[in-house]
Amino acid sequence: MNDEPPALPPRNSFEYVRMDEPPTTWSVISALLKQPGKVVCELLEGRAATVLGALSLVAVVALGLYGLVVGSLEGGAQYGIAPAKIVGGSAVAALICLPSLFVFLCLNGADVRLRDVVSLLMASICLTAVLLVSLAPIAWIFSQSTDSVAFMACLHIVLWLVALGFGLRLLSKSAIIAWSGASSRLGVWACIYVLVCLQMMTAMRPIVGASPTLLPTEKQFFLAHWMHILGGSLEPGRD
Amino acid sequence: MFNAPARFRRLLGGNASAQRTWLEERSWRWAGVCVLVIVIGGGLYGATLGLWRDGWQAVFTAIKFPLLVFLTCGGNAALNGCLGQLLGSGMGFRQTTLAILMSFSVTAMVLAAIAPIMLFLLWNTPSLAAGNGIGGHNVTLLAHVGVIAFAGIIGVRRLFRLVVVTSGSAAVARRVLFGWLAGALLLGTQLAWVLRPFIGSPGLAVEFFRPDPLHGNFFQAVWRAIHHLL
To answer: Does the beta carbon of B3 lie under 8 angstroms from any beta carbon of chain A?
Structure first.
């Protein structure tokens, strides 16, 4: 008996077409993972307000959930402070980098509208946030097993960079689809964005550990801060 | 007609095309059978893992070994689903979880098949009572690490073939598998740390969990070991 299934159709996960059904929160997230081209098409030429609303909602909820996991190392007030800092810090970092993203795209001769750039940046942030939530169980089990702030900070940075890599990849692909060739300067912008986010984390410290003050009393660049953190021991405090 | 033994023969044989059709089924019966195989196969092998130390340790490890598999699989289900879809595996959340369960069930079957050999090894290993506890512990540890790695590689190879079929590309399958394995390694090693002991150190008591299971982590232990060596 021949039980060979039929051959698979050619796969193109970035097909730039409208979504088949009216967008809902779940269908937008599902499409963002499976066929991001559909989400980009809706954002640029379709039901942009609905899709943007869904992306924003999911991004806030997902970043908040990951913030809870970050706060679980210290517990107590950090359960509220960490999510607020992560959601707020991400929003401010995006706002700071939005003008440069717009200008870098324009420098390539792309006919961009600010609204479209906002939409694509939000899609990228949302994808990063969804991936962070999927990585949250790993972060949680480690945060319950250690009281080393340095170790957990390093782990969160690594997980964030993995998730961010996928988010920036989406942004780059979207730019290629929407404004052909516009992604060539996005590598530079991506470096700037990563640096801004790292400095934002430093400016909002402590996010992982606890502190007597809500925000730092002393200004510091993130490199100096990280040298200070890593200069301490990775050993847990109660070993 | 649902024929579990025939399916497992195909699963072990690496018939990826047939496995792809199983992923499309809406029934959870096949997933249930895979879970059962992991419980039985992993439990049997787990018992041989703990038996060198004590009979109770064998019982504890027989429970904890499948538990480790399910916790790793469940904890990474969302991550694996997301990565699979993002990287173009052609599978959704449900199919990804089922594919990984099938891979673990292959590993569990291989481990169960090797369990009698490990019992033979155990019979020839210096016992704790013979006064060479450290030697016996080291032999047991090294042998089991080797066998588990071997069974794991077989399970991953079966999974790779399946992802090649669902994605239509070996390059995509490699990327997907790399992502899944990295996640499993990260979560699995820490869960194994939390669920310790599996073999049972000669100098420590036989127990289900250590008194402070959530204290410390695997990577810090490795870091400390390297630090001490240097």
So the answer is: no
**ipTM value:** 0.71
User: Can you tell me the distance from the alpha carbon of A103 to that of A110, in angstroms, rounded to the nearest whole number?
Assistant: 10
What burial class does residue A220 get, using C-beta atoms within 10 Å of its C-beta: 0-12 exposed, 13-18 middle, 19+ buried? middle
How far apart are the CA of A129 and the nearest CA of chain B, in angstroms? 12
Q: pLDDT value at position A177?
A: 80
Find out whether A51 and A122 touch, Cβ atoms under 8 Å: no
Best of A141, A143, A144 to mutate (most B CBs within 10 Å, chain B): A141
The residue of chain A with its CA nearest to that of B221 is A235
Q: What's the average model confidence in pLDDT over B113-137?
A: 80
Quick: pLDDT tens for A77-129: 889 999 999 999 999 999 999 988 888 888 777 778 889 999 999 999 999 99
d(CA B92, CA B99): 10
The C-alpha atoms of residue A153 and residue B201 are separated, in whole angstroms, by: 32
Sorting pLDDT into bands at 50, 70 and 90, what band is B56?
Answer: very high
With beta carbons under 8 A apart, name residues in chain B contacting A239: 215-216
- Using the CB atoms, write b or e for B150-163: b if 16+ within 10 Å: ebbebbbebbbbbb
In angstroms, rounded to a whole number, what is the distance separating the alpha carbons of residues A33 and A27?
10
DSSP three-state, residue A158 = helix
Residue of A11, A134, A151 with shortest CB distance to B90: A11
